[in-house]
Design goal:
Heat Shock Protein 90, binds adenosine-5'-diphosphate, binds magnesium ion, 5-stranded mixed sheet, Ribosomal Protein S5, domain 2, 4 domains, alpha+beta, formyl-coa transferase, domain 3, 22 helices, single chain, 8-stranded mixed sheet
Length: 625
């Protein structure tokens, strides 16, 4: 017994080591340092922030601001752990309005780099430089504000340094970090320099405000390819811009969400956005958005993560629904804001001179992503800016030998013009004409050709019908999903949590057509599933539904699951390609489209119809006008 070693005595860790441990959480790479330093500059009221980097930030990160600065006696204090000027007590913490409040960033960064602070307040006669390592202070010249220099990041912790990626990658992360700040602070100017070269410059915007900044940071096209979001529900306000479905991306790289000005990655928000796009976006596509959520700081806890990128809402459901409705409504509303006056089609000249018509010179009318029912007859809207290259359509006109139904939409073919459908509808008002016109014929069992008073309308009949069936299912039968009993219940090993969830949400599950019950402490049995999904992997289905239940309020799961089921059903129920339709059937389909919400796009976000006006046809044939 007494040859067992005695336990080590307990000691308090030295400050330096504590900071290095904290740095592990706060400082992952140069971009994390950039984020913390820019946060500090913004908290100090800066109006201009200049970032200078060498080797992607590994050799040097310098952030210069024109904020309030620090008094000389505060400089060394700023480097102490848990030292902050931003909160004083718990109440301050609960309603914190600054980016920082934990007082640990500078201490953590200083423990893994060579850091210096140079700062001057309005009252001081000169600036003061503090070298963190030596503690030495000396006077220097500088105007009001602060410069923080961070050199040789992770020099003392080579293990960390090894995890850094190439200069280009680290630089990209640093830029992204500033971009996140810039998108929520159009009133502040930003510059990024890398190895002596100016690589980004976003000027502070005055009147033009957020839109200008969004265009500067995300590209001029972003405004035309997105709709404004502005929504207030209770005490929650959601503003910003949401990308049109056909400008979605394959990567989730242009998704910016802010809570009270702070960039966050939050599951509730992301899920809210996702559900807003659910009906108009193909599953794998990623919408582009910049949205800002403002609410009483007491209703959100920002102190749940060392880097504050995660937050916890007091009422997640309120946020989820707010975000969802805000975006859904913006996508569904006719967009008057960004449309331009009718551009008469000058393409005849363009063709004659050998120049193909391009953006801005005219093009094909195409549906806007979504039109609320009734809007067709109520809205009179200016013609959207025409964007399609006529030749894109030319390539698209089916060639008898090469018609392919399943080709995914090409980018130009998927271009959706805002307001075109509403425009078409308003112009049809005077005429004896329905917006989508009268059917003439069916082309290769795929398209319906129709004529309205403006010209030729082409309709993808399967896509259009699918949408109609889907919207109908949603409206009517959605309440009851037919379920089918399994001949032999499928049992599977489950976790205690899954078993508990199945019991707790039994009613919800039954509404979804799922009968899942406990067999024991650690196993579940599926006794029935929705009839339309009887052939699917029952266990996977049950698990994913339970997983959803664990994460989201039961009501949203229900709605989502229903919509997914309905979409599957709609696709099967819709007329398939190559089915011959009579003129009567075709006309009936056109009339249904006119009366259906979101009829402009199929459930996968592709357009359901397009129009070639007489002018455009004339131009194709170089017919003088
Ligand atoms: N750029 C700056 N301008 C003025 N004061 C600053 C600046 N950066 C840091 N400080 C001061 O140093 C303190 C510590 O900064 P930091 O370690 O990032 O903690 P926090 O931001 O959480 O307070 C801040 O509270 C602030 O008073
Ligand atoms: Mg800070």
């Amino acid at each position: 017994m007494n040859n067992l070693p005695s336990p080590h005595p307990i000691i308090e860790l030295p400050d330096e080591l504590v900071s290095q441990i904290a740095a592990g959480e706060v400082v992952e790479r140069p971009a994390s340092v950039v984020r913390e330093l820019v946060d500090n500059a913004l908290d100090a009221g800066a109006s201009q922030i200049v970032l200078r980097l060498i080797e992607g930030g590994v050799r040097l990160i310098s952030v210069e601001d024109d904020g309030l600065g620090m008094a000389p006696q505060d400089l060394s204090m700023a480097l102490r752990r848990h030292a902050t000027s931003k909160i004083r007590n718990l109440r301050d913490l609960e309603s914190v309005a600054t980016m920082g409040f934990r007082g640990e960033a500078l201490a953590a960064i200083a423990s893994v780099s060579e850091l210096s602070l140079l700062s001057r307040t309005a009252q001081a006669e000169h600036a003061t430089l503090l070298d963190a390592r030596s503690g030495e202070m000396r006077p220097m010249a500088r105007s009001r504000g602060t410069t923080v220099e961070v050199r040789e990041l992770f020099y003392s912790t080579p293990a960390r340094r090894q995890f850094l990626k190439s200069t280009a990658t680290e630089l990209a992360h640093c830029i992204e970090s500033v971009r996140r700040h810039a998108l929520s602070r159009p009133d502040v100017g930003f510059e990024i320099w890398h190895e002596g070269k100016l690589i980004e410059q976003w000027r502070a915007t005055g009147e033009a405000g957020l839109d200008r900044r969004l265009a500067d940071v995300l590209g001029e096209d972003f405004l035309a390819e997105s709709v404004a979001v502005d929504f207030m529900a209770g005490a929650v306000r959601v503003t910003g811009r949401a990308g049109l479905p056909d400008h979605a991306r394959s990567r989730a790289d242009h998704q910016y969400a802010y809570v009270n000005g702070r960039f966050v990655r939050d599951k509730v928000i992301m899920h809210g956005v996702r559900s807003a796009y659910e009906d108009v976006l193909h599953g794998q596509r990623q919408p582009v958005y910049v949205i800002s959520i403002e609410l009483d700081p007491m209703r959100v806890d920002v102190n749940v993560h060392p880097t504050k990128i995660e937050v916890r809402f007091r009422d997640g459901r309120e946020i989820h629904q707010g975000v969802r409705y805000a975006i859904e409504q913006s996508l569904a509303a006719p967009r008057t804001g960004q449309t331009q006056p009718v551009d008469p089609w000058p393409a005849s000249e363009a063709w004659a001179s050998g120049r193909a018509p391009n953006a801005g010179t005219g093009g094909l009318a195409a549906p806007m992503p979504s039109t609320p029912p009734g809007a067709w007859r109520q809205q009179r809207m200016p013609m959207g800016q025409a964007v399609n290259d006529l030749r894109a359509l030319w390539g698209q006109v089916p060639d008898p030998s090469a018609t392919s139904r399943s080709d995914p939409a090409t980018p130009s073919d998927a271009k959706i013009l805002p307001s075109a459908l509403a425009q078409l509808a308003s112009e049809a008002l005077g005429a004896e004409d329905q917006p989508l016109g009268q059917a003439l014929a069916q082309l290769h069992g795929v398209y319906i050709l129709a004529q309205n008073h403006q010209g030729l309308v082409l309709i993808d009949m399967h896509a259009a019908h699918e949408r109609i069936v889907y919207e109908r299912l949603k409206q009517g039968v959605a309440q009851r999903i037919d379920s089918q009993n399994l001949l032999v219940p499928v049992t599977f090993a489950a976790t205690e949590t899954e078993v508990a969830l199945a019991q707790e949400h039994q009613d919800t599950l039954l509404t979804l057509g799922l009968d899942i019950g406990p067999l024991g402490v650690r196993s579940l049995a599926v006794r029935s599933v929705p009839a339309s999904l009887a052939d699917s992997d029952v266990v996977a289905l049950a698990r994913s539904v339970l997983d959803e239940l664990a994460q989201w309020p039961a009501s949203t799961v229900l709605e989502r699951a229903q919509n997914e089921l309905l979409a599957t059903m709609a696709c099967h129920a819709a007329v398939r390609a190559n089915r011959a339709l009579t003129l009567g059937e075709m006309n009936a389909l056109l009339r249904q489209m006119e009366a259906t919400e979101r009829a402009d796009q199929c459930n996968h976000g592709r357009p359901t119809w397009r129009m070639l006006s007489m002018k455009e046809l004339d131009a194709l044939f170089m017919r003088g006008r």
